[in-house]
Design brief:
- The protein has 197 residues and is mainly alpha-helical.
- It contains eight helices and no strands.
- Helices cover 70% and strands 0% of the residues.
Length: 197
């Protein structure tokens, strides 16, 4: 007999949430289409507008709501270490937080200065490096296809696969980097480095 443990319950709960959200999105698409058709919109235009509902819901839930909530909380006396509840909202203080940041906080202007300096240095260097790389990869020389493949590989590979590959390479006990470094480390009497600790 196979012991399923608690993972069946955990995955079934996740799967039911996934089905519930998917059903709600499909319902919003259908309702949008029906409402637009009731208002006399052509079928193809109503279909197009209804099919952008998943993007619109994602924008409203994951972009607009956090933006508005963050702006509201910036106008209150809110403590990040205290849980926020709808029953007891933090007291409204208006622009007092902004006034304090601009005039009373000794760390604000130095951090703005460092951020601007970082942007003034990193953006032109990044643009110059990108232009130089593009010019090198645009040349018609022998073997440029290999270099193009190597250069674009990280953009093509999924982020999860890349993270797993790097984790395997830097594994302290059996990683590729430590395996290659092991003869040199033994020569100097050093142990394998623990890269992630």
């Amino acid at each position: 007999m196979i012991d399923t443990g608690s993972w069946v319950h955990d995955y079934s709960l996740t799967f039911s949430h996934w089905l519930l959200v998917g059903g709600a999105v499909m319902l919003s698409i259908l309702l949008t289409y029906r409402v637009l058709r009731l208002f006399g919109m052509r079928s193809d235009a109503a279909t197009g507008l209804a099919l952008i509902m998943p993007w619109l819901l994602g924008f409203l839930i994951f972009n607009l709501y956090p933006f508005i909530a963050s702006f509201y909380l910036s106008l209150t006396d809110y403590n990040l270490l205290r849980p926020l509840s709808l029953a007891k909202l933090p007291p409204f203080v208006g622009f007092k937080n902004y006034t304090h940041a601009l005039s009373g906080d000794p760390n604000f202007w130095p951090s703005i200065r460092i951020t601007l300096l970082y942007g003034a240095i990193s953006i032109p260097l990044g643009l110059a490096g990108s232009l130089f790389t593009a010019m090198l990869l645009a040349r018609n020389v022998k073997g440029v296809g290999i270099w193009r493949t190597l250069y674009y590989m990280p953009a093509v590979l999924p982020a999860a696969a890349t993270a797993l590959l790097w984790r395997w390479m830097f594994n302290p006990s059996s990683g590729l980097i430590n395996t290659l470094l092991n003869p040199f480390l033994k020569l100097f009497g050093m142990g394998k480095p623990s890269w992630f600790t």
